[in-house]
């Protein structure tokens, strides 16, 4: 069990930073997944909602700034996430996308 009592502070901050990054990116991906309750993401126009694209891009940029700008990341108590962490974020996003598409396929088959 990971607790702050048995994990070095730098490791704990790195794990918290990766968790924050993962949860935030998943929320941004979920925004695209839930544009329709039944239509597949692959059949929808990706540029159909320009304001949403702008909002997601801005949120993503601010997330990167918070993690990678020296001084700001220290203030926010975040650390840069390495390639392995980004890999875990990517896998999490793929799982979310697959689950969303499976749910939508089931919803379409019920109708």
Q: What report would you give on this structure?
A:
- The protein has 111 residues and is mainly α.
- It is built from four helices and no strands.
- It has helices spanning 9-33, 50-68, 72-75, 83-110.
- The radius of gyration is 17 Å and the shape is elongated.
- The termini are far apart.
Helix content: 55-70%
- Annotation, overall tally of beta strands: 0
Count every helix, treating DSSP H or I runs of 4 or more residues as helices: 4
Largest sheet geometry: none
Structural class designation = mainly alpha
- Mean pLDDT across residues: 92
Global morphology: elongated
Strand content: under 5%
Uncertain regions: pLDDT < 50 for 5+ in a row?
none
Distance between the termini: 45 Å
Q: What is the radius of gyration computed over CA atoms, rounded to a whole number of angstroms? A: 17 Å
Element order: H for helix, E for strand:
HHHH
Summarize the structure.
With 111 residues, this protein is mostly helical. Helix content is 68%, strand content 0%.
Which descriptors apply to this entry?
111 residues; mainly alpha
Topology, pairings included?
Elements: H1 9-33, H2 50-68, H3 72-75, H4 83-110
């Amino acid at each position: 069990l990971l607790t702050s009592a048995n994990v070095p502070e730098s490791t704990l901050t790195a794990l918290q930073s990766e968790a924050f990054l993962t949860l935030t990116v998943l929320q941004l991906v979920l925004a695209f997944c839930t544009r329709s309750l039944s239509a597949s993401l692959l059949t929808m126009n990706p540029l159909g909602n320009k304001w949403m694209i702008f909002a997601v891009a801005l949120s993503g940029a601010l997330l990167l700034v918070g993690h990678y700008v020296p001084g700001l990341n220290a203030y926010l108590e975040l650390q840069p996430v390495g390639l392995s962490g980004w890999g875990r974020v990517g896998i999490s996003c793929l799982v979310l996308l697959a689950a969303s598409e499976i749910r939508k396929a089931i919803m379409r088959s019920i109708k």
